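Appendix B. Chain record.
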Amino acid sequence: MTTDNATDNTTNNINNNVDPHEIEKFSSLASRWWDPQSEFKPLHDLNPVRVAYIDSHVDLTGKTVLDLGCGGGILTESLAKRAKTVKGIDMAKASIDVATLHALSEQIENIDYEVIRAEDLAELEPQKYDVICAMEMLEHVPQPQSILNAIRKLLKPGGTVFLSTINRNPKSYLFAVIGAEYVLKLLPKGTHDYKKFIKPSELAKMSRVAKLQCIDTKGMNYHPLFKSFDLSDDVSVNYLMTCKG
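Structure tokens predicted for this chain:
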């Protein structure tokens, strides 16, 4: 009986495109989202690179933006400083609570945070957003294709999508798992599941299935000596992708 219940729960989670272990993992760290020296330091270091990449492709002035898997709001707040309105969604309520409180403390009034699945929001707000970001989140869900399909529904015709995730190959395992989690200890052990990493060719195919056109791909390289990231043409580990609706 216990086995049957466990199987049913697993099936429900997959159908809901939610991994409870991922939610628990990020919820347990939620209070440290805005500590630049915490487990989220890599995201703080990475954020200027992500924002610069977005700025190079689209002027957010007057735009309605959606940040999927927003966590504690590090990227969301940067987007809000440029856009008309930003909505941030995440399935970890603890992270959303932290994001909401931080935005209030910074007196940022054009952000709306909500605990909701992308698929459910797509049914409520079709074709609402000019720009949609899904950064460092596709490798944490059971069905990334479902996220891409929801993005397509949420996006206005001609809108822009920004994605980022981790390539799947021996080098990415060495750098993103062994190096980042065990050697440099930039991230807690178990942050990433190598099996969930996504090759650029796979992500481009998912985008095409969702009727999104991939127009650009860039790598993001980490320099341990300087503890910084920059953009490059090397997509072998972390990479960004831009798509158009």
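Further analysis of this model is presented in Appendix C.
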